[in-house]
Amino acid sequence: MLRNARYKGRDARSLRQLLLAQGGLGVPGGSKRMTVNSGFNRRQFLSGTSAAAVAAATQVVLGTARGGDAPVAAAGEYSPTFFTTAEWAFINAAVGRLIPSDGNGPGGVDAGVPAFLDRQMELPYGHGAFAYMHGPFQPDAPASLGYQLAHTPRELYRLGIAAADEASRQTSGRRFAELEAAQQDKFLTALETGAVRLSGLPAHIFFAQLWKNVREGYFADPLYGGNRGMVGWKLIGFPGARADFTDWMDQQGKKYPYGPVSISGRRA
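The structure corresponding to this sequence follows.
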C-alpha cells in the first residue's frame, strides 16, 4: 500500500516494507498474513533483509531461464507470452500496488516483476514440475501441510485472475485493473484475508501465490526478467553472484562498496 495513503484507518506502509517478513517463500497459503502494524520505514526494513533470504528467492528459478542471458526488455516493452491482455492488465495493476514506485526507487512494475511472472509460467515451474501434484487434495487443510489444490501455478493464475476480475465486477462494476488505487488496495486485502469469495478456488491461496512470486521477481537474478537494474539487490546491499566476497562477510554494518553482479557477469 502507498505510504501516504490510509489503510484500515491507519497510516499505511508500502507492501515493500513487508517483503520477506513472512518466513521466506513457502507454498501458497503457507505465509503469514500481512500486517501494517510495523512502525519501521519500509527502506529501513528492506535494508535489513538478509542475503540468505534473497538467495532463497532465487532458488526457485535457477537453471530455468528462457533464452539464456537474453537482454530483458525495458518497462513497457515486454510482450507477454502466457498472460492474456486482460490478465496482463491485472498482473501489472496488482504488482504496482504490492510494490509501488516512489521517490526512493523503482517499484515492482519498473523492476520487471510482471515479465518475471510471465516467463515463469512458460517454464517448468509454471507447469508444476517442482511440486507434488497428486491427490487427495484437501483445500481446507492447515497451511503447514503444504499446497492442497490440483492446479499448477499457471492454472492457478488463469483461474484466479478471471475469478478476481469477476468478483471485482460484481462489487464495483469494473475489473480490478480499472479500479482506483485505494479500491485496489482494499480488494487485495480482501483477497488476502478471504473476505471476498472467488469462484473455483480460495481467494487467500491465489493471493499467497501472487505475493510469493512478486517477492521472488523483485529479488531474483535479473537473468529471469525481474529485479531490472538490480534495484532489489542495490536496495539491501546484496552483492549478487560475485565469485568471492568473503572478506566482507564478517564486517557487519559496513556497506559493500562494489555493487552487485548478475549471474551473467553484468554489473549494476
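Confidence is low (pLDDT under 50) at residues 1-48, 59-71.
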